[in-house]
Structure formats: C-alpha cells, structure tokens
Amino acid sequence: MSDHADIAIIGGTGVYDPGLLKNKKEIKIHTPYGAPSDFITIGNYARKRIAFIPRHGKGHQIPPHKINARANIWALRHLGVTRILAPSAVGSMKMQLKPGHMAISDQFVDFTKSRQYSFYDGSEVYHVSTADPFCKELRNFAIKSAKSLKLKVHNKATYVCIEGPRFSTRAESRFFKDYVKADIIGMTVVPECVLAREAEICYLSIATITDYDVWADKPVSTKEVLETIQKNVKNTRKLLSELISKIPLQRKRCECGKALENAKL
User: Is the pLDDT of residue 68 over 90?
Assistant: First the structure.
C-alpha cells in the first residue's frame, strides 16, 4: 500500500497540526462507518511514517459526542497503523494534578451514554478485554520520555469520560471525585480506546490538564484556560517528538496485537 503509516496521532483540543511531519500529504479515506473527522495527513518523522487526524476536525468543528470514532479508528487500521498516540485536554479532579501538568492514563470509567462502542455489533460478537485499556509498553515509553524532558507528568490516572458537550454540574463533579475516585475528567477517550483495542492497535492517552473541574469551586476564566492550552500544546509536541523517536517499529512487550484471540463467542 502506497499510503501506509506505522504510528498515528489523534490530535485533541488545540492540537490540530502536530508540527512534526515532513514530506506530508493529505488523503481522504472512505470507511464502512462514514467519514472520519477530517482528511488524514501522512508524513515522515524519525524514520517512521506518521498519520495525523484532528479528532474534532480542523477548526474544532465536531463536538465530542458527535465524533465518528469508528470511522477514525477504521481508517487508521486501513493504513496499517499499529500504535495510536492520543493527546486530549482534561479537567483535574485532584488538587495535586495541576493545570499545565500531564497525566498518562492507566484506567478509565465510562459515563458516556449514546456512542457507537464496537465494530462487532452484527453477525460476529467479540468481548475484548479492557482490564488494562491503555498499552503498557507505550505508557512506559511516555513516562520515561516526559521525565527526560522534565515535564510535570503523573504516571497513573483514572480518566472519567462523560458524554458532553456540557460540563458537569457541581454535584456530578463531586460524585466523580469522591465516589468514582477519578483523577481527571474528559469527553473523548471512550469509545476511542476501546475501538483501538478491537482493532488490535496499541493506544496511549496523553491527558493535558487545563483547569480544575467544578468540584474545586475555583472559577477559571476562558483566558486562563486558553493560555494553559497553548502551554500544553507546546509540551505535547515536545513529548510526541521524543516519544516517536523512541518507539520501535516492532511490538514485543504488549498484548494489544492479540486482543481478539479467544475473544469471539
């Protein structure tokens, strides 16, 4: 296949162009699930073929509950992608996870309501394991890379995913903090990471913290949030650059590529 990629970046809020790729071109892919979020950009970096797609489309035109995650993941698998790096903006549920910090998620709790969660909702039924929903190998690479860059990174975080596009009420936020025991809150990791597992693609969530969620009763202005997002984008690009250069082409230390084994009924 002439249009091939080894690693994909799904850009979150503020990351509409990774600013890394050389010899890049845009391609349009048709999928059985409709159109992906946008054209996919393919280019070279660190002797690897990289695919990039903005999760919300260029200019942030797609709200989180309308993202066609099945089309996005199918398109990346069609290109031969075996690893997905997925930055996203999140709110903090704990005082020690401060705006400007990063968190490498290791778990999620799903509170979404109306999304398409599986490729297998017809004649074939697979029950894939999401006990550890994020690739362990990629998480290790990301943590080491972030520390080498002296970024403020948290090695573990439980990501509570809500439907959106509205933010939580104060009661919901306190519930997620005190009873769910979530560390961060966002709107996009589910079903994206679940579909990647079904596609047997390694998936890494890179959560960049923009503000404290409403449990904290700490009003944050839009100006402050935008300033934090811009700072986070710079750090995200640094991390992606370092991470891509370290990731080997062959997968040897994770089981993501065997997710469908023994999963079919």
Answer: yes
| 3-state class (DSSP) for residue 24 | strand
Q: What is the pLDDT of residues 181-195, one digit of tens each?
A: 999 999 999 999 999
Catalytic residue among 106, 110, 183, 211: 211
Residue 34: φ, ψ to 5°: 100, -165
Mean pLDDT of 148-154: 96
> What distance in Å separates the CA atoms of residue 116 and residue 31, rounded to the nearest whole number?
15
pLDDT of 222 higher than 70: no
**Is 211 known to be catalytic?**
yes
The whole-angstrom separation of Cα 66 and Cα 187 is 11
- For each of the domains in the chain, give its residue range(s) and CATH number, in order of start: 7-258 (3.40.50.1580)
Whole-angstrom Cα distance, residue 251 to residue 249? 7
pTM: 0.94
Is 213 an annotated catalytic residue? yes
Nearest-angstrom CA–CA distance, 226 and 242: 25
